[in-house]
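Annotators were shown the component list below and the corresponding predicted structure, then asked to write short factual statements about the assembly.
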Amino acid sequence: MPTIIETPTETPAPTRARAPRRDAAENRAALVEAAISVLNRDIDGSLETIAAEAGLTRRAVYGHFATRDDLVREVLTQGAARIGASILTIEHADARIEIALYGATLWLQVQHASVTAEFAVRGPHMRLVAEALEPARAKLRATVRRGVHDGVLRRDIAPDRLARLIEGVALDVLAEATHEGLDDRAGHTLVMVAALSVAGLGWREADDLVAGTPELAYRVVSASGTASVNDDGGTDAGRADAGAAHDTTTGEPTR
Amino acid sequence: MPTIIETPTETPAPTRARAPRRDAAENRAALVEAAISVLNRDIDGSLETIAAEAGLTRRAVYGHFATRDDLVREVLTQGAARIGASILTIEHADARIEIALYGATLWLQVQHASVTAEFAVRGPHMRLVAEALEPARAKLRATVRRGVHDGVLRRDIAPDRLARLIEGVALDVLAEATHEGLDDRAGHTLVMVAALSVAGLGWREADDLVAGTPELAYRVVSASGTASVNDDGGTDAGRADAGAAHDTTTGEPTR
DNA sequence: CCGATTGTGCACACTCGTGTGCAACTTAGT
DNA sequence: ACTAAGTTGCACACGAGTGTGCACAATCGG
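Structure shown to annotators:
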């Protein structure tokens, strides 16, 4: 082993014990994963960082992607596709519930959603993402319009603007989850409630709607992708009379 | 004039007709202004760009700031200070109104607020901004707690988390203003209403509160800083019975 | 009108990140 | 066991930004 030049960069570069190396494609996937993770923290993290997080060398990246941009594009299209696809399946007669579902669905994609959304506003990829996301956004806009028309959503903000604001809070909740920590169950509920609030519902309405709609129940997603309803009581045992404690979504006690 | 190397960069560099040069300090101010403007568009815009927007050369910047970082720091501290100061003056017995005022106040600082907020989440300046903004945030948290205690705000989200979400939507509205265009009056109302919605109020409650509270009326701010109430009717002439049309905040007609 | 400020033009050194070329080594697949 | 794909280490060319030095022009403040 010749002169191992110890890179005194930020990355302590644990050159030792290199990953046992699985198959090719797995590494590619790992790269995309790493990219998502890194870009979530720093929107323009270096290839070096990404490669490291994937357990590879910067040089090796070029064995999978011709350009850093290609990698990013992969992350983006992949993300936008996933998000778009899952959102387009949402459907419900009640626009409010559909909006809640929109939030819940987004919640399942926290990582992807955050990066994707970030890129949707910055740099030369705006278009790419915007286009890929357009169908999903269009659907949300339509849902909002329908809700307004049916009289179940607020009428004081133009539907399209409202749709954007809903998307906004949803992402705010995702951010909250990233920065402050928010367990799966709480996040699931919070996105929905927040979205509904912006949509015009009062907090009790929102809570009741979420609590009283089986479709909005929290589901545990198994690794493979199967989902199952998870109704293990929760903290709110006896809530029926709109009385004192009304807690949900929280985590930290009100006092 | 020797070989003028025409920089084929993004900036077309209109070297001609250089600004008639006012006094020294004015340029420094111009630089900060330019920085705010540029950074608002691209969080890591180059000194070249900033200098150009200020009508100066990159080289000249170093006559005012030793480092790019110094300039940024100036922008940040200046912004955080302004925002913090203005927010700390807010006061009202009704927590809901105080929250609305919080939004309205933020609205007056769109430019500053956006950049500052952006930096509050990215890079090594997080601390700087976070610290400078802490008092303001603490106040908002306190207000939210009070509101919850008084029973006028939602009880289903932990106060501190709720405070962060309120800050979030407020900034979302500022972003909406930047990207989609939003005139002063509409923005003023929208921030307040959005904040109140997240705080738990139903949309009619929020609208009524905003419309029925003189302190929340839109004020035209003259260049110097003096503010005056501006109550030129508006579009909603006959609104008293909670009947059909209820428009405010909008701009675009509901159909 | 003179002198100190302030800004301009260019040149240069340095850093960081990207993209390539190559030789040597490791591992999966058959 | 042999081969081909996949990786690793360098080395090098480049581009974009930052930070500095210096001579020279523009301008304000008296």
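Statements collected:
1. Residues 2, 4-5, 18, 21, 23-24, 27, 56-57, 59-60, 63 of chain A lie near DNA strand D (CB under 10 Å from a C1').
2. The longest helix of chain A spans residues 126-150.
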